[in-house]
Write a structure and sequence with these properties.
Layout lengths: L24 H6 L15 E7 L5 E7 L1 H5 L3 E6 L23 E2 L5 E7 L2 H8 L3 E6 L6 H6 L8 E5 L2 H7 L2 E9 L11 E6 L5 E5 L4 H12 L6 E5 L14 H14 L3 E4 L2 H7 L6 E9 L5 E13 L5 H9 L11 E9 L13 H19 L3 H8 L23 H11 L2 H14 L3 E14 L8 E8 L5 E5 L8 H13 L6 E3 L2 E2 L14 H28 L7 E3 L2 E4 L2 E4 H10 L5 E7 L4 E3 L4 E3 L3 E14 L5 E10 L7 H20 L30 E6 L24 H12 L16 H18 L1
Parallel strand pairs: 1-12, 10-11, 14-15, 18-19, 28-29
Antiparallel strand pairs: 1-5, 2-4, 2-6, 3-5, 7-15, 8-13, 9-10, 9-12, 11-20, 13-14, 16-27, 17-18, 17-24, 21-22, 22-23, 25-26, 27-28
Helix pairs in contact: 6-7, 9-10, 10-11, 14-15, 18-19
Bound molecules: ligand MTE, hypoxanthine (HPA) and dioxothiomolybdenum(VI) ion.
Dioxothiomolybdenum(VI) ion binds next to loops.
Length: 781
């Protein structure tokens, strides 16, 4: 802190835009980072487990907990009747009981809480209940829900132009269907809450959550107390991926209910199997489409009907379906279009947020359609994609989305051209074709897919954030903000922003745990907006302190406050170079306030949910990827040989962290589209509830040749240092893997037949598609 720089350094000095290690990287690697379960337990701490429904849909006639209560170490057990406040943890619609009361709606739904002296004793006891059910018919697939008109919300639709007339006029049409599976978040740290009673109705909840404020409210309602009695704290999560946006609530509420009854600290840590049986996942989608196009492959009319598996309750399915509708266009202009989405009510886990939040599911449908069109016309899919890209400006036109937002930052044309060149796409296309001609069993496939992703919560009021910055007398800085750290690096970025504003190295700034008693009414850290919103709020706070310090510096050294510079850990004022710490000490003695709050609300957003029109997004993030795969057509096994990725992070706040986000999302999305398969048996039980049966990608699934780069761009919006969000959009990049596999499959019949390939493209699914292609081709011949 005591190394004042020279004016010559000013241009070179920056705390943002530089690659910096994650603030907890060392702690992560050394095993010293504290997750909720690592926090030392208070004396008298008890452990809870949940008793789960064995039926997908049934009336509960009786619950006999006698054996549970007699089990070793058990202290108490609670059912819905014991809840003093409201028995609900639904984030939007109140259809989400904490504990089932009278009716169970899926296998795995919690019915009771058992509290014991140890985690293991609680889990063993939870299995000893005797529940009498009267079974009811269960709906287990979204298609069945649609057939029964059984929805958790009214279906939605977005229309522009005159689809029917355009479709009838179109010289070519393609119709089809597609199903895309769901995905388990598989955060490495499972759901956990540790509830500690405080005096006079108070409760401190240490919770692994993306949404501390929502947890505060759910716990307050469940306990029947005001929010100011409840404090929720989260230092970090071992991953959230959307799974802790709303669904940490059940665990926070259950632990708090038990803790408040017993007046003792209660920890509820979900075992992996319970976590997967109880909580919702990414929504699986089923699509029917009918699209008209011209001889060049330009889309003239597009209609898609999507039905998604909402599960038994609404949870976040409404906004997820909305985001799917608003991402069906992906990077393409659709003049005459009808997009429908319906949230099928099924007797399964209530599906929820997962990285991309419906966006990936919306966009993959149009990519599938374009892939069909290309094959029908005997063209390279990249040419059809390019032909349909949004226009770049008003002169080009074709630059308004179906929901009415004008696109003013389109870089997909340049970005995909740059990637096409740097990946040697055309040369490799020829090489793939040559390889396939001479290789009867092993087939290669290649695909380039683009992405455009809207950044902002699609519920406008959620786009706000707050922060607190403290400068202590020794010159060290503490920042608290409403965002939560789940590994994505939000704290590092916010620390960089604060450091930059005060002209300090990042080492002088520390971030604290997220805490509802520090910043109130925070939004979930979600929609990839964490750094955008909280970075701006923290910048606002730091700027106020900086302005006070600048004013004080002018008092001491003269000059103009507007040209006081803060960089290189020093304040540069009227020809003087004063160490930051020295000025802080002088300001303190002069009674200058050295801490501040900050606030940010994203401007220009509006949205009408009835017409599905408006300006829901602050800006768009763009990217593209090229994947090359090798498929064994006898076994369905495949390998990703090479992936080239280009992502638009604007002026990246931290290129090291952003590259990590892009790589991670790519591999996670590849898992979704290829190996991760959720499977419910005929009795409605999810059978893939552990890593033994549910295959997430491993390190060996990463391509040996993985070329990930950031696109050089500036956000045209005044975002934090002109950066762009990076958390979710790159999950769409591995579409290229899926379509490369489809390309390899289609080569078995000379690309004459559209392979009916559903996601996940497991080995079985690949073999099925190969068989279908071969028989269709034989039939046509
Ligand atoms: N990265 C890590 N390591 N762990 C996570 O849980 N969640 C993703 C993404 N990247 C996640 C992650 C999701 S779903 C979102 S919305 C964003 O991070 C949230 O953080 P941000 O808004 O600060 O980018
Ligand atoms: N993403 C995540 N969470 C949300 C969103 C979104 O777009 N909208 C409302 N909650
Ligand atoms: Mo991310 S799915 O918005 O938590």
């Amino acid at each position: 802190m005591n190394h004042p720089g020279t004016p010559a350094l000013k241009a070179a000095w920056a705390a943002v835009g530089v690659p910096r290690a994650h603030e907890s990287a060392q702690l992560h690697v050394l095993g010293q980072a504290t997750y909720t379960d690592d926090i030392p337990e208070l004396q008298g701490t008890l452990h809870a487990a949940l008793g789960l429904s064995q039926k997908p849909h049934a009336k509960i006639l009786a619950i006999d907990l006698a054996a549970v209560l007699q089990a070793r170490g058990v202290v108490a057990a609670y059912t819905a009747q014991d809840i003093v406040g409201s028995n609900d943890c639904g984030p939007i619609i109140h259809d989400d009981p904490i504990l089932a009361s009278g009716l169970v709606q899926y296998v795995g739904q919690p019915i009771f809480i058992v509290v014991a002296d140890s985690h293991d004793n609680a889990r063993r006891a939870a299995r000893l209940a005797s529940v009498t059910y009267e079974e009811l018919p269960a709906v287990l697939t979204p298609q069945a829900a649609k057939a029964a008109h059984s929805y958790v919300l009214p279906p939605m639709q977005l229309k522009r132009g005159d689809y029917q007339a355009a479709f009838e006029r179109a010289p070519h049409v393609v119709t089809g269907e597609l199903s895309v599976g769901g995905q388990e978040q598989f955060y490495l740290e499972g759901q956990i809450s540790y509830a500690i009673p405080k005096e006079d109705q108070g409760m401190l909840v240490l919770c692994s959550t993306q949404h501390p404020s929502e947890m505060q409210h759910v716990v307050a309602h469940a306990l029947g107390v005001h929010a100011h009695n409840i404090t929720v704290e989260c230092r970090r999560m071992g991953g959230g991926f959307g799974g802790k946006e709303s669904q940490s609530a059940l665990w926070a509420a259950a632990a708090s209910i038990a803790a408040s009854k017993l007046k003792r600290p209660v920890k509820l840590r979900a075992d992996r199997d319970d976590d997967m049986l109880v909580t919702g996942k990414r929504h699986c989608f089923y699509y029917e489409y009918a699209v008209g196009y011209d001889a060049d492959g330009k889309i003239l009319a597009a209609k898609v009907d999507m039905v998604l598996r909402a599960g038994f309750s609404a949870d976040l399915s409404g906004p997820v379906a909305t985001r799917a509708v608003c991402h069906f266009d992906n990077s393409y202009y659709l003049s005459d279009v009808e997009i429908r989405a319906a949230c099928g009510k099924t007797n399964t886990q209530s599906n929820t947020a997962f990285r991309g939040f419906g966006g990936p599911q919306g966009a993959i449908a149009i990519e599938y359609i374009i892939d069909d069109i290309a094959r029908n016309l005997g063209r390279d899919a990249l040419d059809i994609r390019r032909l349909n890209f949004y226009g770049r400006n008003d002169a080009e036109g074709r630059n308004v989305t179906p929901y009415g937002q004008k696109i003013v930052d389109n870089v997909i044309v340049e970005l995909s051209a740059e990637l096409e060149a740097s990946s040697a796409y055309r040369v490799r296309r020829a090489a793939v074709d040559a390889f396939n001609r001479s290789s009867p069993v092993l087939k290669k496939g290649l695909a380039l897919t683009p992405l455009k992703f809207g950044i902002a919560f699609n519920v406008t009021h959620l786009n706000q954030a707050g922060a607190l910055v403290h400068v202590y007398v020794d010159g060290s800085v503490l920042v608290n903000h409403g965002g939560t750290e789940m590994g994505q690096g939000i704290n590092t970025k916010v620390m960089q922003v604060v450091a930059h504003e005060l002209g300090l190295d990042i080492a002088h700034v520390r971030a604290t745990a997220t805490d509802t008693s520090k910043v109130a009414n925070t939004s979930a850290t979600a929609a990839s907006t964490g750094a955008d919103l909280n970075g701006k709020a923290a910048q606002d706070a730091a700027r106020q302190i900086r302005e006070r310090l600048a004013a004080h510096a002018v008092k001491l050294y003269g000059g103009d406050a507007a040209v006081v510079d803060f960089y290189d850990n020093a304040v540069h004022v009227n020809g003087h170079v004063v160490a930051f710490t020295e000025l802080v000490q002088k300001a303190y003695l002069a009674r200058v306030q050295l801490w501040s709050d900050g606030f940010y609300a994203t401007p220009h957003l509006h949205w009408d949910p009835k017409t599905m029109n408006g300006h829901p997004f602050s800006y768009f993030a763009y990217g593209a990827a090229v994947s090359e795969v090798l498929v064994d057509t006898l076994t369905g096994e495949w390998k990703l040989l090479r992936a080239d990725v280009l992502y638009d992070a604007g002026q990246s706040l931290n290129p090291a962290i952003d590259l990590g986000q892009v790589e991670g999302a790519f591999i996670q999305g590849m898992g979704w589209l290829t190996t991760e398969q959720l499977w419910w048996n005929a009795a409605g039980k999810l059978m893939t509830h552990a890593p033994s049966t549910y295959k997430i990608p491993g390190v060996s699934d990463c391509p040996e040749d993985f070329r990930v780069r950031l696109f050089n761009n500036q956000n045209v919006e005044d975002s934090i240092h002109r950066s762009k969000a990076v958390g979710e959009p790159p999950l769409l990049l591995p579409f290229s893997v899926f379509f490369a596999i489809r390309d390899a499959i289609s080569s078995v019949a000379g690309h004459r037949v559209n392979p009916p390939l559903n996601a996940p493209a497991t080995c079985e699914e690949i073999l099925k598609a190969i068989a279908a292609v071969e028989s269709a081709d034989a039939g046509a011949a």
